[in-house]
Amino acid sequence: MLEAPSVDTEHQEMSAEDLALQCQDGCLESFESLVALFEQRIVNFLNKMVRSRQDAEDLAQDTFVKAYKNIHRFDPKYKFTTWLFTIAKRTAMNHYRAAKSTVELTPEKEIDERDPSVELEEKDQAEGLWEKAKRLLKPNQYDALWLRYGEGFTIGETAKVMETNELRVRVLLHRARNKMAQHLTSQAESQ
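Below the sequence we write its predicted structure tokens.
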């Protein structure tokens, strides 16, 4: 995981967009402030996608390296968070592609020798609302739901990160909320 840089109070009070502009002018401290500001959110976002904290931390580091190398491409008329989360999502998608090709190349499966009761207990503990959503929803519905409610992005920002339009995001959110509501209702009735 990236080390938390020390951030001076001048940089703490600046907007992410202003920090990115200073970084474009060569200010390394501004980029360190951006890392400090967004690191945990990016790691959490990636962890929801890849379901591995260590992979999420590695991918977050890759995301920030890519952002630093491409900071000249950031357009300040847009929000920095949208730009950064788009890089993170693409980094995770590349990770999936690489992992999928690796799995296809290695046909043997690892044998899980853990105690089934321990495995069930861990599964029960991890079964939260977001876990249910991840399991029940299509990936793009889950992504839209997480970006909108987990990260607090607007519909427009969510659309930019997902590289789609606002109407599509609204449809994805509507379907995701309905599917979750149906599942929770049927679960409550069966108890």
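Residues 12-106 form a domain with the Rna Polymerase Sigma Factor; Chain: A fold (CATH 1.10.1740.10).
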